[in-house]
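Below: protein 1.
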Amino acid sequence: MTQDNYNGSDARRVDSEQIDLIDLVVQLWRGKVTIGACVIIAILLATGYLFVAKEKWTSTAVITQPDTAQIATYSNALNIIYGMSAPKVSDVQERVIDRFNSSLSALSESLNNQEQPEKLTVEPIVKTEKVPLQVTYEGQTAEAAQQQLARYIQHVDEQIAKELDVDLNDNIKLQIDTLSDSLKTQETVAQEQKDLRIKQIQEALKFAEQANITKPQVQQTQDVTQDTLFLLGSDALNSMIQNESTRPLVFSPAYYQTKQTLLDIQNLKIDPTTIHAYRYVMKPDLPIRRDSPKRALTLVLAVLLGGMIGAGVVLGRNAIRSYHPKP
């Protein structure tokens, strides 16, 4: 008997749920006009939003470090300035692209902090690698996004080229001063050596005159040392003093190498327009799909939202009508 009552209760509960679901569908069907009106209003609002909302298009470019030809003048200048201690071309390429990345990131921050922010992003394609870099810019039209991204990349490239040119000129001035000081030092040393040589001969001449030696007393001049120089005789020593006084300074090969390096550096002429800090892997593309607003998605959401609001209005209205307060 108890089991029969339990089964009967379950059956009534299932019937009640089915009746409630059917009743819900019937209520929604009867309120289809209200639901349709809400859907139409939502679509109209969405359409109005699509007309007034600002469009967003994203153009993308992929860049990597410059090739050898793009930094050839800069790299050659470094080789002339620093010689064997100049950095390798691969090191120069890495430094230049790092500098370009830093400047582009700084530009991105400044654009984002404007009264009307602009969205420029720079990030490596592979997180563990520095290059290649993906650069994106968000504009109000596809053409504007593409053109503005290209302008910003070119602007940063020209800025880096000017900075490298300034750095080179500063290094050139510093190296010219260093080499000029080195030449002056070597010239001073050579002059002192010449003066010392003349004094040594003059001292030997005094000894020769005191010893009354006028003619050479040795057969082989290569055997003469500083202490025995007076044995060459006063006549030979006087002639040597005259020759040493008019003889040009004697320099080591290092002096002439330094002078050649100085002349090469002084003749350096760098054109900043020949220096480029990046190379395109993919130029700024022309986007074919806008990021927002998305028309299809907006309209679909409007239909769903309008339907939900309409259904809520219908069900709420019927619930209020059928509500009877308990006595």
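Below: protein 2.
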Amino acid sequence: MKFRIASMLAAWALCCFQGSAVAAETRTAQEFMLNNGMKIIVREDRRAPTVAHMIWYKAGSMDEQNGTTGLAHALEHMMFKGTKTLKPGEFSQRVAALGGRENAFTSKDYTAYFQQIEKSKLESVMSLEAERMVNLKFDKDEFAREIRVVMEERRWRTEDQPIPQVYELLNATAFIAHPYHHPIVGWMADLQSMTVQDAKNWYDRWYAPNNAVMVVTGDVDAKQVFKLAQKHFGKIPRKAVPTTRPQEEPEQRGMRRVVVKAPAENPYVVLAFKVPALRDVEKDDESHALDVLAAILDGYDNARLNAKLVRTDKVANSVGAGYSNVARGPVTFLLDGTPANGTTTEQLEKLLRAEVERIAKEGVSEQELKRVKAQLVAGQIYKRDSIFGQAMEIGVMEMSGLSHTKIDRVIEKLRAVTAEQVQAVAQKYFGDEALTVATLVPLPLSEKKAAPPPKGLRH
């Protein structure tokens, strides 16, 4: 997956993590439920004496309202600013003293907190997470400092960066009614008017054991993890968590276009087609076929887009395709590229679409399909190479409304995708009706104001 598509996916989660490359094998996770409604999922992996401990809250930017965008992310920052028993910054200091690392990330669909730690220190970090689930402090001065950090983060990551500006406007144009319209970090005006009481209200509304999932992977005993969870989280009372009302995006009835003018080295274009998300692993065969189609276009070094438009025809400096089908809300299939000298963004747009149209008309050979599916399945399996990667995979599935028990079934369904199914989705979903196109028109770099990253940035 190329840089621009990666930028889009990164824009859907403000996060920071990395994993080690170790051969993984399939393991079955065990699931428990505390009496207060908190789900505990444990996958034992004995390859190294380490543990990934994650707490996922089903509350992301899609749960915000106009005027308070950015709240989920702002609250994530406040989770490190002290509790009844912890001073501001002490949470991170304690994890570091234990020899671990920790961070958090906010997405459109959820907010998650994690620690990677030596296995004997698991109870210590579990105790810390339980403390801030129920005893977070909201100091007005701490909030004032932290919201300034968030505003600087927005300037540094979006307002001063041309590609993130493109994707922010793309989402705001593609989604009219659905809250995916809003950026995770929030609109600047909402950040400027946000109060510490807004953050506390968000915490009181969503941060409850019955709206959280604990995921633990690594060198642990599942039953012992459950006992520790009961000890530290079991006494936290459940809350009446609000029921999210259906927020359906109206049917798009024609192509939408948007242009961003910003200091940049090169022009750029991205096309977003509205396509089905994965809601039912067993029934949603079109979603699996779209996954394979993305891999055919851009799943490996010599995939179709790069081979044709960059290497052979030399009409683009870079091209890409992306489809992330696991989400609480609607999803898009992306095509993007930076044109080479002598090629316009309008021409590249047509050339990108022509590659999908070629599959729609001619299909794909069994040989190519077999090769691409092998690459795609390998990529799915490689996500489990690290202890942390396994925890991420489980958490994302659970937060998106899909059971972690279906993870292996997804791979089986990908293996079963036929050439006819790939051709059918290429024919069905890539017309003008549900397409949004965003184009970057570069301005001179002399107009760009260099700014250092904000102090206190966690991600």
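Confidence is low (pLDDT under 50) at residues 1-12, 16-26.
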